[in-house]
Design a protein that fits this description.
By secondary structure, the protein is an alpha/beta fold. The chain is built from 16 helices and 16 strands. Helix 6 (about 155-170) links the parallel strand 6 and strand 7 (about 175-180).
Length: about 525
């Protein structure tokens, strides 16, 4: 039976557990503001994600606040909070989740010899007792408890069966099996899940889950292998965001299941047409760009682009010759409508809708004004230009510091100088500075207006499109103590884009200064 005609009821459902806001945010430099986390959570809820792991409530006041606010807003998805195997962690998670319509506590402990001996300094029996006490405590707050043996793929099989059995006896309803360091291969991971289901008593009463990291580039393959072995939940992130090499990418998992129903007789409840929108949002708020030729070519810039003459000929005759899925299935238009300075409001609004933006009247008028300005400076305005323009405007809307004017003097004939005017809480301030190059001079001028001790950890310039008049897309990362923030700016003038990105990061830094943020805690 073909994928198109097979009814979902004949397949088995796979639960999608998204951890972009927890494990994804643990990527160095990928920290998000509260408002950014709320935007991502609301989109995940809209697209049909079953479980949203909103954060690690005890890690910081900021994480607690984010989980609490997401719990209040999300209506469809289960909201999950992470907790180590300690009473304080579990109590804090329960407090953060108290307003959620549907809540889950996810508690974990390392079980491999390396984790027991070196990280925890506990023996097998001590770890076992913590499994029992943590799952039991979590069960007092909710009947939806997930338990994870961290570094499960390097844990002795007999011991892994023992602690999984204990977690089930104590009331865990989901057993997550993490490949914490991305060590496994697909066959190994499939066999591990199958072994646990066959050997552990009452394994049929819980859902087994996968949580695979991409250190060897096998996270998606291992996750699907786990499903073939009997797992019915996949933990993943948008764009594969996560520590080190990242996690299994949600969009790849979902589209692999959707596209290869012949060998993967499963389904998810994800609205795949929102995948591109989610990818762009997470890329923007994390300042982690998506590579052009991203794996499986679902949300990468070149996802449905063909340059080879042979490919072009085949696609024109039948798209399936070189495309295994339809662009519209993941929220991508098959062609890019080129907009220009003669385009009117109606065409521009239709374009925004097609790109997944729903702006109010005032925001639309401002976006249209900026689009016209851009069209006067740029020969062709592509979809990517418009998306960058709108995302840049949305980022600036809530900022207390805004760029008003910039003059840069550069070249070989004299000192590199910048004159910057900022609007700081409604007051315009102008400063001039000399530096080792125009960017250094510009950043020094901004620093003189808004003093801070942050160091520049990343300055990255990319082009939104390929032409010589393309918009520059600049990312800036600032670090001050234990605070790491990122900003992004877009403009046809690279220096203006750089100033916008720096100011965007500075706004986040100023906001976070006012909040107490203890050293971040990390877990897989």
């Amino acid at each position: 039976m073909s994928t198109e005609t097979q009814a979902p009821a004949e397949k088995q459902r796979v639960v999608i557990f998204d951890t972009t806001l927890r494990d994804g945010e643990q990527s160095p430099g990928a920290s998000m503001t509260l408002e950014e986390k709320l935007q991502v959570a609301e989109l995940l809820d809209e697209m049909g994600v079953d479980v949203i792991e909103a954060g690690f409530p005890i890690a910081s006041n900021g994480d607690f606040e984010a989980v609490s606010e997401i719990a209040k807003r999300v209506k469809r998805s289960v909201v999950c909070g992470l907790a180590r195997a300690s009473g304080a962690d579990i109590d804090r998670a329960a407090e953060a989740l108290q307003h959620a319509e549907r809540r889950r506590i996810h508690t974990f402990i390392g079980t491999s010899p390396l984790h027991r001996e070196f990280q925890l300094q506990l023996d097998k029996d001590q770890v076992y007792e913590r499994v029992v006490s943590s799952v039991t405590r979590a069960r007092n707050f909710t009947d939806d408890v997930e338990w994870s043996p961290m570094d499960a793929t390097r844990t002795e099989h007999d011991y892994l069966c023992r602690v999984v059995e204990a977690a089930i006896k104590c009331g865990a309803t989901t057993i997550n099996i993490p490949d914490t360091v991305g060590y496994a291969t697909p066959d190994e991971f499939r066999d591990l899940i199958k072994m646990l289901i066959e050997r552990v008593p009452n394994a049929d009463t819980v859902i087994f889950s996968t949580h695979c990291h991409d250190d060897l580039g096998l996270a998606v393959a291992n996750s699907l292998g786990g499903v073939l072995g009997g797992a019915r939940q996949i933990e993943c992130t948008i764009n594969g965001l996560g520590e080190r090499a990242g996690n299994a990418a949600l969009e790849e998992v979902v589209m692999a299941i959707k596209t290869r129903g012949d060998v993967l007789p499963y389904y998810t409840d994800i609205d795949a047409t929102l995948l591109m929108r989610a990818s762009k949002l997470v890329s923007a708020v994390s300042a982690f760009p998506v590579q052009y030729n991203k794996a499986i070519a679902i949300v990468g810039k070149n996802a449905f682009a063909h340059e080879s003459g042979i490919h072009q000929d085949g696609v024109l005759k039948n798209a399936q010759t070189y495309e295994i899925m339809r662009p519209e299935d993941v929220g991508v238009r098959s062609t890019s409508l080129v907009m220009g300075k003669h385009s009117g409001r109606h065409a521009f609004r239709e374009k925004l809708v097609a790109l997944g933006f729903d702006l109010g009247d005032n925001a639309f008028e401002e976006a249209f004004r900026r689009f016209k300005d851009l069209a006067d400076r740029k020969k062709h305005v592509f979809d990517e230009d418009i998306a960058a323009l709108v995302e840049d405007e949305m980022a600036q809307a809530s900022e207390t510091i805004r760029l008003v004017a910039l003059t840069v003097i550069a070249g070989t004939g004299g000192p590199q100088k910048a004159i910057v005017t900022l609007d700081v809480d409604g007051v315009h301030q102008t400063k001039e500075a000399v530096g080792d190059g125009p960017v250094d001079a510009m950043f020094k001028a901004i620093r003189s207006i808004v003093p801070h001790e942050a160091t520049l950890q990343l300055y990255q310039v990319g082009a939104v499109t390929e032409e010589s008049d393309a918009q520059a897309d600049v990312s800036v990362r600032l670090g001050e103590g234990d605070k790491i923030v990122t900003g992004r700016g877009a403009d046809t003038d690279t220096m203006v884009a750089s100033a916008k990105a720096y100011v965007s990061a500075l706004n986040k830094l100023v906001t976070r200064r006012a909040k107490s943020k203890p050293e971040a805690l990390r877990a897989s």
